[in-house]
Amino acid sequence: MIGIIFSITSNFILNKIWTFENRNFDLRKTVTQYGLFLGFSGVGAILQLGLVYYLVDSRHLEYGVSLILAVAIASIGNFLLNKKWTFKEKVWS
Predict the structure, then answer these.
(1) Is 61 buried (19+), middle (13-18) or exposed (0-12) by CB count in 10 A?
(2) In sequence order, what are the residues at sequence separation of 6 or more whose Cβ sits closer than 8 angstroms to the Cβ of residue 87?
(3) Which pTM value belongs to this model?
(4) What is the pLDDT of residues 47-69, one digit of tens each?
(5) What mean pLDDT do residues 6-35 have?
(6) CA distances from 30 to 3, 11, 42, 93 (A)
(7) Number of other residues whose CB lies within 10 A of the CB of residue 10
(8) Which ranges in 1-93 belong to alpha helices (H)?
């Protein structure tokens, strides 16, 4: 649990500074963004687990292939959700 929290927190900070170049660390704004980031990370994790289960159990794909596909889909979804709602950037420029 500590590792997951650390991972999500470090990903949030790196995304805020590096990916989205949002260096405004106003406490209220940052806490709101962090909450959204946590929520979207949770949705992404559930989506990823569900996809792996579906692909292995229903589509009979190998676990490794299923995991790669699920991680790719969840990562793209997380990026787009965070870009649009957490960091308030246009998705398509």
Answers:
(1) middle
(2) 15, 16, 20, 22, 33
(3) 0.90
(4) 999 999 999 999 999 999 999 99
(5) 96
(6) 21, 14, 18, 24
(7) 10
(8) 2-14, 27-57, 63-81
